[in-house]
Amino acid sequence: NKNNFWQINNNIRQAVTFCNMSLMDSLSTLGFFDLILCRNVLIYFSSETRKNILMTFKNMLLPNSILIVGSSESLHDYQNDFGALHEGQSLYYRVKK
Description:
The chain has helices at residues 10-13, 47-60, and strands at 33-38, 61-69, 82-87, 90-95. The protein is an alpha+beta fold.
């Protein structure tokens, strides 16, 4: 971490696929994940659309997987689906299955 800049190790980067997706499209063809990063996106959707996206994420995440959202995107209303975890000043969520 130099000046708050992080870079993925090349061995990990080669195993990762980066792509642009629309959360409004079907995501079922993507498979299952250990980690989903969706920072500062959900705040722009209606509560119903946000709920649909989060339930899609829940179904895509493997047991004990992690969902990271923006600091202003609380999942307080989804405590039955995601458990909050605190690490220092960071907050992330583990899917409950």
